[in-house]
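LOG
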Amino acid sequence: MLNVIRLNIRSIKIWEVIMFIPAVFVLAFLASPNFMHPYYMWIFYLTFGLSSISLNPKKHEKVQRTIFSLPITKKEYIGAIYLLVVIWFFLATIVTTFIAFMIDREMEFFTFELWITMFFLFLFFSSIYLPFGMFFKRAGMIIPIALITFIITIRETSGVSEIHFHPILFISIIIFGLSYYLSTMIIKGKDIS
């Protein structure tokens, strides 16, 4: 499983990350102009960008062939992909915290409640994105754009300017697990060579 994660991380080039970082900042400001600091949306979009790059259809097929030449089961492969998006979230948190710390050394914008809320929301949206991103190439490109549009417009249409933690967000863990199960069922029927 660690080999799968390592191969996926190595498949991402630094220039790919540098190219989408400006988009992350723009999207974060669009999604949260009323926030004192768009820190949480930076984490969300950076994580989504890293996940999208690692599941890029052309790159993913090359990495997938290498991975399945290793002694690994399809279920372990799916588990590694799902674990990888969680790793991306924590990595994006570290990078974003470093950037935000350079802007505001007091870090007054940080609250654990909002951070954990973003984590649960990311799990929820990843549950939708991952099966499409891995198995349905065209939908895998459309889903991130649709989710970003949804996030930006829901704030505008609902009149809610801030996100707050609610215990119902714990359901995202169950949905993430169901998404994993669905992905393992889909890959069982696929011939990967």
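LOG (cont.) second protein
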Amino acid sequence: MVSEIVLPHLTRHFSIAQLNHCLFYEWNPKKNLVTKSGPFDRKWSRVMLLISWGYIILQIIGLIISSATPAEKIFPGTLMYLYIACSSTGIAWSADPANLKLMNIIYGSEQRSRQDYDRNSKILSTLINLAYSLLNFTAYVVFPPAIVVMLVILPCQKPLLGSFLLPDDECSRPLFQSICCIMLILRVLLILVEFIQLCHLVVVATHYTVYIMVSGILYVWEETIKVLRFPSSLEGYRDLQVLETILNTSIRFRIFPTLLTVAPTLEILAIFAGIKYHDAIGGIHLVLTVLLALNATVLNVMYCTGAGIVCRKSGEYLRDMKAKVKSKVEKKLLRSYAPLKPSKLAKVGVE
């Protein structure tokens, strides 16, 4: 189910990534597998990673030395944190073999025989599809074009490049009312740079958070439900432990700790900005802030809920099996099993 739902989103995602040359991975339609991207894409990804962090340092310095009031800094601070969150999630210098293996387990399984789903499964599949559609729509269709519109109207929006490079008398002018042709060309170039930079960041962040971590947890959830439908047998639980190990190897040391830090923080910051300073920030700023809060909330709910249910269901299954197993071999085998805990996040999800 998860593979069938997510695969169309994944192929579109890789098509956008290929245009931006921003990932260490690509989709091979002939093999129906995720493979390493080409040499140029890998080199360009490293260059953009360094540029992103250099730009973030510049934004932090600019915001610190700014004489703006706290109300005027709240949206620039939220926007800067979006850049930090995306760049932190996408810190990688090469393709990770564990990520490749996990993605091919998830998305390669779409070719397996399909089964009929009950009503609850259909509702769940619809919700998952809607969540992925929302995340993709805001990441690819809303945020980058919104930055373009914002910079056409507000060329000196802090903490972006225009606030450092454009003269003060240019800041209040719409794009086509620029002082001279040179300023018009400079502003167009700045808009193009910001658009490319943000496209790169959102594609990379979406890849690691949505198509590796969230998809991985949802896939383990689905496989867990399949195995636990047959509570009279221990067969299959070992396969779930192997799948859990592959997932944890892929996300435990970088993706999961980063996402666990930046996603709730971004959610809290965006909600705070939208509620506390909604009168002080402009219309387009407020829309972007609300969408940031919505995206972060959906992301947090998906991976915490999935991990929590996996842990709870597997724990209940093992407790039930203690009363059912009879042979010494099965009892010994059962004692070696533990509840599934994707990246130790399960306790958070259960709570």
